[in-house]
Amino acid sequence: MIHLQNILLKRGGRVIFDGMDLAVHAGHRVGVVGRNGIGKSSLFLLLLGRLLPEEGDVKLPRRWVIAHLEQEVAPRPVSALEWTMDGDRPLRELQRAIARAEERGDDRRLAELYAGLEAIDAYTAEARAGRILSGLGFAAADFSRPVGEFSGGWRIRLNLAQTLMCRADLLLLDEPTNHLDLDATLWLEQWLAQREGTTLVISHDRDFLDRVATDVVHLEGGGARSYRGNYASFERQRADTLALRRSMHEKQQARVREIRAFVDRFRYKASKARQAQSRLKELERMTLIAPAHAESPYRFSFPGPGKMSNPLLALEDASLGYPGAAPVVEALRLRIGPGDRVGLLGRNGAGKSTLLRSLAGELPLLAGEEERGRYAGVGYFAQHTVETLSPERSAMQHLAALRPEATEQAMRTYVGGWGFPGDMAFHPSRSLSGGEKARLALAVVAWRRPALLLLDEPTNHLDLEMRHALTLALQAFEGALVLVSHDRRLVENSVDEFLLVAEGRVRPWDGTLDEYRDWLLRRDDDARRNRPESGARPDPASRRRAGARKRESVRPLRDALRDIERRIAGLEPEVRALGDELADTGTYRRLSGEELGELITRHERFRADLSRLETEWMEVSERLEASRG
Prior knowledge:
Elements: E1 2-11, E2 14-24, E3 29-33, H1 40-48, E4 55-59, E5 66-68, H2 80-85, H3 89-104, H4 107-119, H5 125-135, H6 152-165, E6 170-174, H7 182-194, E7 198-202, H8 206-212, E8 215-220, E9 223-228, H9 231-245, H10 249-266, H11 273-289, E10 313-320, E11 329-336, E12 341-345, H12 352-360, E13 367-372, E14 378-381, H13 395-402, H14 408-417, H15 434-447, E15 452-456, H16 464-476, E16 480-484, H17 488-492, E17 497-502, E18 505-509, H18 513-530, H19 540-583, H20 585-590, H21 593-628
Parallel strand pairs: 3-7, 3-8, 5-6, 6-7, 12-16, 12-17, 14-15, 15-16
Antiparallel strand pairs: 1-2, 1-4, 8-9, 10-11, 10-13, 17-18
């Protein structure tokens, strides 16, 4: 059992916990929730012994092994499979001891150590590591790749794989789904639900917590309160507590009216019968939990686009992908009109991001026809969008640059609803946290008043309250929406239809997300059953011919990758030079205001181009690895 008693913790002069008490029973899976900055990560550091409280006691069973998901991974020459297996500490200790015993020629000790390997089932370690890597979205060809070859997000997945490999009594996971797609998130839920031992997980994904957590710990006001049950149960219990503690009726009813207006919008559309029923259930749930969100700092909407063309965008017999490479998606027929709300499903690397980039106009069609309406402005948010923010500009300056005619009061009200009240509206974006930058980037996208909103994993780095507010804003959005997200609560309550991107095609998915999960599990089971036995090997000539065919098929992707790398190599020195010039205080004395503005604009444009190229490099790399596998 974990027991924290009367904890007083200060960081940087700020009180994080004051008189905090917390007990966690062995074997429970606990979701740790609370606003950003409230102390969730500090709680983990206390349990790890990396922070010591000013007062109070932190008590854990003496022999417990703790595994913790680290957020940084230094590039290493070891392979992904070996890195994952490093998480099995007893295995590695025995292997090192065996190496020492072999050097000494100590046969008796070797016999003991090999018996130890048998006792911990060490001979299945490689298979266990492979299952974890596959579940997290790595192709078989990735297993032998050095850790340093993977991008930052994929290295975080490798860290997660190593953490899951650990024979831990206590597992601490801080935002484990941030860099996962929906398929990997579904696999992780199943893995954690079957795991023995105690688990504490920080997450802003409601559905993930609903399926994983047996308990919820809510941090607030320097203390912690435990709730039995999953996240939905916590919301209801906390709403009851708040409703009893103070009058919440007026705020609750306002929120209910807001949700009901959305539900009424679809009630009488026969084609949306299933979605309408789902939303009615969501209304019932949100009616119960409205008090729990009444104090949220976020109150925003996506401004209406005004005029909208019909269709906004149409593709006919389109091939999508990267110039010089094989198409990622082919024979695509797609029509998006005002009010359409589409969720994209499919495995990582299947082409969802490529499809969004093509819809945004960032990637030209490889073949086919495209029709864009006159009033079809696009708002596109992806992970690289955050990098296009100017470090020196504040939230207010970003808005003013897009719509100079807007009044200061209108802009202050707008950014205040996105969580930038008062002086925060004037802080340069370089001083903001990752979550704050993500919020600002979304706010800037919405400020453009798009008719077509394209969102690629918009919830990464957003807290639970912000995700809730984003869901409500998307429900009320009058334009069209195409969404990729591993946050099922957001998807289920924001879109009306699904498209499945798989095997180079895009087709309608008529089922629910639960049915999609079941389909994935069935397909994985079928693939395992149909996998050929390792002993059945083709003859050498057949292997050579197959290898030649595979090398030829991936040649265009390799060429495209080299071209992107060449362009990145050309841009990086420019971005560094401009950044150094802007960091030099003499630049601001030497240049006129107009010249300085041109310098900043050029730096922002090059940074945005570099960020897009890096995203393109990751997507082509994933496509190449999938082809090799």
